[in-house]
Amino acid sequence: MWKQIEGSRAVAETVAMCRPQVICAYPITPQTHIVEALGEMVKSGALAGCEFLNVESEFGALSVAIGASAAGARAYTATASQGLLFMAEAVYNAAGLGLPIVMTIGNRAIGAPINIWNDHSDSMSMRDSGWIQLYAETNQEAADLHIQAFRLAEELSCPVMVCMDGFILTHAYDRIDLPLQHQVDAWLPPFEPRQVLDPAAPVSIGAMVGPEAFSEVRYLEHHKQLRALERIPEISAEFYATFGRESGGLLRPYRLDGADTVVVALGSVNGTIQEAVDELRAEGVAIGSISICSFRPFPLEAVSRALSQAKRVVVIEKSLAVGLGGMLATDVQMALSTRRPRVYTVIAGLGGRAITKASLLKLFHQAKADALESVTFLDLNWDIVNRQLKRELATRRSGPAAESILKDLGTLSSKIV
Amino acid sequence: MPFHQIKFYQTGTFTIGNRLLEASDRSVQSDVHRSNALNSGHRACQGCGEALGARYAVDAAIRAAQGNLVAVNATGCLEVFSTPYPETSWQVAWMHSLFGNTAAVASGVAAAMKAQGRPQVRVIAQGGDGGTADIGLGCLSGMFERNDDVLYICYDNEAYMNTGVQRSGTTPAAARTATTPSVGPKPGNVFGQGKSVPLIAMAHQIPYVATASVANLHDLEYKVEKAVPMHGARYIHIHVPCPLGWGSEPHDTIKVARMAVESALFPLFEAEYGEVSDRTILRKRHPVDDYLKLQKRFAHLFRPQRDEERIAAIQAIADRNVRRFGLENGAAS
Questions:
Q1: CA distances from A32 to A8, A91, A303, B322 (A)
Q2: How far apart are CA B253 and CA B23, in angstroms?
Q3: Do B139 and A56 count as a contact with CB atoms less than 8 A apart?
Q4: In the β-sheet with A261-266, what is the strand arrangement from edge to edge?
Q5: B173 domain residue, yes or no
Q6: Quick one: A300 and A192 in the same domain?
Q7: How many independent structural domains does chain B possess?
Q8: Whose CA is closest to A295, among A136, A68, A70, A77?
Q9: Which of A29, A317, B110, B142 could pair with A326 as two cysteines, CB 3.0-4.6 Å apart?
C-alpha cells in the first residue's frame, strides 16, 4: 500500500506489522520518531499484545529487550549515536547470549564535539559486537529490512541492527510501498526461541564459561554470521517473491559492466554515488558502484566477485578509524587479498557534512587518474585545519579546538548545505 | 511479621522452634519438600550469608509463586559461585546478563510474561550490594518508578566481595576493605558516606519495601511470601554476612547477622507505598561493640586501643535507627 510518509513512520508501521511483543524506548535524536509512533500504536490499541516500556537509559532499553527476548517475546528497540555507545555492554551481551533482538540505528555521529547529524561512527563502533548489521539505501529498504531482520534474527538466534542514515532517511518523506498485515503474517512465522526462561522447564542462561569452551562459543557466533551470508540473499529473494520488491541482500552492484573504477559505500549515499556514476558513464568513464547492505557479516566473496574487473576501488566511508583511515576499506581490502587493485579510502560525510554530487564527480575524476591519496578526507577544509595546527604550535593554552575552528569560519550555528 | 501466641520453652533465645508452630506456620526451609532452589554443590565459601539468604528467599518465592518463578541474577558472587557451566545449582528458570542491568532485564522478563498472557509467572531479580546500590542503581530506579512487576532482592554483604572486598556504596563507616584499608590516622571507611537502598526504594512510593536478615528466617520468608504475589515493583534488602570479607568466623554468620539487627545497625522493617508499615521491635538491645567485635574488618576500632570516638559515632548511627524506625516501642520519631 503506497503512502507518502516519513522514513521513521514507515519503519514504525512496518515494525508494528511484525507484531513485536516488547518494545523499549529511550529518546535520542534522530531515532525518536520511530519509537514515538510505536508508543502511540501500543497506547491506542492499534498494536495489540505488545508492552511498551519507557526506560531510564539506552543501557536499560537493550537490557529490557534482553530479558524480554530470553523470556520468549519478540523484542524491538531503536537508538543512535551516544545511545548505542551507552548500551555497548548490553550490545555484546545480547549477541553472546544469542538473543534475536532487532534494533534500528538512526545513524548519527559520536561526540565530542557533540553532533546530532548523520554519519556511521555509531554502528561502526559496534561492528565486532556479534550483531548482524544491515544498511538501508532508501526508506523503502529501511522499512523492508525490518521484516527480513526479524526473520533472519529468529532463524539464527542472532540480533540484527538495521542501520538507516539519521535525518537523510529517518526524517525524509518518501513515497513508500508499505506491506499489508496479512502478507507480513504469512511471511514472518511466530518467534520460536532456542532457549527460553520457562518455570516449567528451568534452564540457566548466561552462566560463566572458562577458557575450555569460550573459543568454541565465540566461533559459533561467527558461524551464525557465516550462515547469515547464505540466508541474507535467500531471504531477500523470498521477500521479493511475496512483496514484489528487491530489498536487502548482501550487496547491490550498479553499472559494473566494464567498470575499471568501482565505488563502494554503505547506506543512503549510494543514491548520490549512482547519480554521479550515471553522469560519468555519459561522459564515457568506465565507472560503477557497489552498495553494501550486509556489513556484518561482511560478504568477502561477493565483494571480491563484484570487484573482479576493477582496476581501482574507491571506498566512501561515513566513519573514521582514527589513526588508520577507513573500516569499510580495510574489509574491502581483505576481500581483495588475492588481487591487488588500488584501494582508496575516502572519509566523507562526517557529522552530517553533505556528500554532494559535485564533490563526488571531482573525486572520481581524481581517482580515475590515480591522483588520490590512499586516505582522502572529502571536502576537508585544509586551510582551517592548518590554521588550528599553527595556533596549537604557537600557544600552549589554545583552548577548545572546535570553538576556535568555528570562530575562524565565522559561523554561528551549523548549516547543512 | 504477624504476632503469634506462643509459649517459649527455650530460654535465652528469641528463636521460635518450628515444632512449636502450626504446620502452616513452619518455615519453608523446614519442609522436606522445599524446592532447594540453590542446590548443594555450589562454590560459595564456608558460612556464606549470601548463599543462605538466596536459598531462603528463592525457596520462599517458589512456594509463594507455586513454582511459577523466573529469577534474573546480577554479576557477582551469587552468580559466580552458583553456576560456572556446565554445572548449575539453580533449580529455577534463571538468567544472568550483566552487572548493572539486572532490574531492567527482569522488567523485560515481566513485560514478556504480560505480553504472552502469563501473569501467574512471577519474576524476581537478585543482586549484591554493588549490583544494586552502585552500578545497577539507574536500572533499579527505572524499574521502581515504572512500577514494573518485579520483586528485586538485594543480598547486602557491604562490599564487592567477588572482586576481593572493595568498598561499595553500602560499606559501613570504619569498615576495612581493600580500598578503605586499615591504615592512617582514621583506618577503614569514612563516616558520612554511603546510601540506604531501602529508603531510596521507599522514595519511589512502590507497593512494598522490606529489610530482612538471614538471622531471622521466619521473618525473611514471611516478607518474601508477602511480596511475591503482590503486583508492581517490590524490594527486599537482605543483610548477609560475608566471613571472608568481614573477617568473621564461618560458624558465626547467623550470630553476626543477629547482632547487626539487635544492635540496631540493621533495622528490620516493612514499608508500603513509601510509609513504614511495620518494624521488628528489639526486645533486647546490644551495644554495637557486640556486633563490631565479631569482625576483623572493625579490628582497628579495638586495637591497639579502643577508638572511643569512632565507636561512639557508630553507636550514634544505631541510636538514630532506633528513633527513626521505632525499634524500641514501635513509635518512630
A1: 8, 19, 34, 49
A2: 27
A3: yes
A4: A251-254, A287-292, A261-266, A312-317, A342-347, A375-377
A5: yes
A6: no
A7: 1
A8: A136
A9: A317
% of chain B beyond a pLDDT of 90: 86
CATH of the domain at A339: 3.40.50.920
Does residue B14 fall inside a structural domain? Answer: no
Ordered DSSP codes for A296-321: ES--HHHHHHHTTT-SEEEEEESS-B
pLDDT at B106: 98
Question: Is B231 touching A (CB cutoff 8 A)?
Answer: no
Which residue among B94, B138, B148 sits closest to A204, beta carbon to beta carbon? B94
A395: distance to nearest CA of chain B, Å? 41
Contact B70 A199 (CB under 8 A): yes
Per DSSP, chain A holds a count of helices (H) and strands (E) of 15, 16
Number of Cβ within a 10 Å radius of residue A189: 11
At A87-108, the pLDDT tens digits run 999 999 999 999 999 999 999 9
Q: Tell me the β-bridge partners of B210.
A: B236, B270
Asked if the peptide bond before residue A400 counts as cis, ω within 30 degrees of 0, the response is no
Q: What is the ipTM of this complex?
A: 0.95
Structural domain of A191: 2-243
**Interface contact B94-A57, CB threshold 8 A:** no
Mean pLDDT of B215-241: 97
Per-residue pLDDT of A227-276, as tens digits, reads 999 999 999 999 999 999 999 999 999 999 999 999 999 999 999 999 99
Mind listing the pLDDT tens digit for each residue in B107-128? 999 999 999 999 999 999 999 9
The verdict on A38 and A181 lying in the same domain is yes
Q: Which residues on chain B are in Cβ contact (under 8 Å) with A73?
A: 108, 111-112, 115-116
A143: CATH: 3.40.50.970
Shortest distance, CA B121 to any CA of chain A (angstroms):
8
How far is A113 from A379, CA to CA, in rounded Å?
19
For B152-176, the pLDDT digits (tens) are 999 999 999 999 999 999 999 999 9
Nearest CB neighbour to B97, from listed A55, A93, A209: A93
Q: Which residue in B has a C-alpha nearest to residue A19's C-alpha? A: B115
CB contact (8 A) between residue A73 and residue B116: yes
Same domain, A191 and A281: no
Return the H-helix or E-strand segment holding B123. strand B122-128
Residue A192 sits in the same domain as residue A325: no
Given its phi and psi angles, is residue B193 left (phi above 0), alpha (psi -120 to 50 degrees) or beta?
Answer: beta
CB A177 within 8 A of CB A147: no
